[in-house]
Design goal:
The strands form 2 sheets. Strands 1, 2, 3, 4, 5, 6, 8, 9 and 10 form a 9-stranded mixed β-sheet that branches. The chain has a 3-stranded mixed β-sheet with strand order 7-12-11, covered by helices on one side. Helix 7 (about 155-160) packs parallel to helix 14 and helix 9 (about 220-235) packs across helix 13. It has helices at about 5-30, 60-70, 70-80, 80-85, 100-105, 115-120, 155-160, 195-205, 220-235, 250-260, 265-270, 315-325, 330-340, 380-390; strands at about 130, 145-150, 170, 175-185, 210-215, 240-245, 250, 270-275, 305-310, 350, 355, 375. About 35% of the residues lie in helices and about 15% in strands. The longest helix is centred in the N-terminal third of the chain and has 29 residues, at about 5-30.
Length: about 400
């Protein structure tokens, strides 16, 4: 090839490169301009980054510090030092020593009920050993995992669930597995010693997950976090999870039919239940869900009632990661809503979840249960009765 032809070829290549660069630049410019701005760059008229404003309530203040740890930009804007953050490393987030600063940082700490004192002192503790595990529970990929919150003394509830809606299933590619989630019930809470009985129960049924923490109402959130970590390590292949209380009736067949009908897109972010919106903490001390103003301020994100909800295994793994960025909160279903919010998601209300029961006039009509997924609450004998009637092949509704 002559020198002239090589120069001409090189010139052509350079021209093509210049044209390509020009196109890329123009596309980038047009992408950064508003369609209605007639080619002009859109400049914000005010600050678009929310200014850091310290909270007064203890939980909000500690959560804010945790968010600074995970967001270095916010940390710079806040002008807070690492020492002021008190959560300068990951180990501080899981400390199981009582926090001595709580006494001075919670204005009315001395006057709080004991359950709040215990919760706040050990707010960051999440390191609890698993005393009874079921490492092979998800050896075959479960289509649905039934995870039921229970207390050690509730033998009758667990057995009723095993004999009714909580039966394990292997039918084709549909595998249903069951675990009960338990903590310790120590003598100081006036529980009898049932350790030998729960060990015997676990050996027989192989469905008990027991952690070494004190099983209280406020520690239901801890139960949620520990379960999510167990799923991530021992059941990451599960497709869907139902998580609920041991006093609910669940129409498992209805749940399975619903899950089989889902598209892949819908299934990925699935989280359905009886959703509560525009709620906030109760300030009346006599109420079960009472939260002092010194502990939490503001409203709650949308959340599904803790009686039971249904979500995807994929989402469970993401919730586990999100839980590291959300401080434990005394109400477990609200906490789950907070973790969903951290992921940019919200629970979806489904009319099949009746966490506040159905009208009394329909409760003895078995046909009232055929299209429902969950009803709260039901006694062990009622669970078995409803389940038996629903399985009748001659049932005509």
């Amino acid at each position: 090839m002559s020198v002239g032809r090589r120069r001409l070829k090189l010139l052509g290549i350079l021209m093509m490169v210049n044209i390509f660069i020009y196109v890329i630049v123009e596309v980038s410019k047009s992408g950064s301009q508003d369609k209605n701005a007639k080619g002009r760059l859109v400049i914000p008229r005010s600050k678009f980054w929310r200014k850091y404003t310290p909270h007064k309530a203890y939980w909000n203040k500690q959560q804010q510090k945790l968010e600074l740890l995970y967001n270095p930009i916010l940390s710079l804007l806040s002008n807070m030092t690492v020492e002021e953050n008190l959560v300068s490393n990951q180990s501080a987030l899981s400390s199981c020593d009582p926090d001595p600063l709580v006494h001075s940082e919670v204005s009315d700490f001395a006057n709080l009920p004991d359950r709040f004192k215990d919760f706040l002192l050990y707010l960051r503790c999440r390191n609890y050993s698993l005393l009874m595990d079921q490492p092979n529970k998800c050896g075959q990929k479960p289509f649905l995992l039934l995870a039921i919150k229970s207390l050690i003394p509730h033998f009758d509830r667990r057995q009723a669930i095993r004999e009714s809606w909580g039966k394990e299933i292997e039918s084709g590619d549909v595998i249903v597995r069951r675990v009960f989630l338990l903590g310790q019930t120590p003598p100081e809470d006036h529980f009898p010693d049932l350790s030998h009985m729960i060990k015997f129960e676990s050996d027989i049924h192989q469905d008990i997950l027991l952690w070494n923490y004190r099983d209280t109402f406020f520690n239901l959130t801890l139960k949620e976090v520990l379960f999510l970590k167990w799923v991530s390590s021992s059941c990451a292949n599960v497709q869907f999870i139902f998580k609920g209380d041991d006093d609910v009736f669940v129409n498992t067949n209805q749940i399975l039919d619903y899950l089989k009908s889902l598209s892949k897109e819908k299934a990925k972010d699935l989280f359905i239940g009886d959703v509560i919106k525009d709620a906030g903490p109760h300030r009346e001390k006599k109420l079960k869900y009472y939260i002092p103003e010194s502990v939490y301020e503001g409203s709650y994100p949308p959340y599904a009632g803790g009686g039971g909800f249904l979500y995807s295994g994929d989402l469970a793994l993401r919730l586990n990661n999100a839980s590291d960025q959300v401080l434990l909160y005394p109400i477990d279903d609200v906490y789950t809503g907070m973790c969903l919010q951290k992921l940019g998601l919200a629970p979806e209300k489904h009319k099949g979840f009746k966490t506040f029961d159905i009208e009394e006039k329909y409760r003895n009509n078995i046909c009232s249960y055929t299209n429902l997924m969950l009803v709260h609450s039901r006694k062990p004998q009622e669970m078995i009765k409803i389940w038996t009637l629903l399985q009748d092949p001659h049932l005509n509704c």
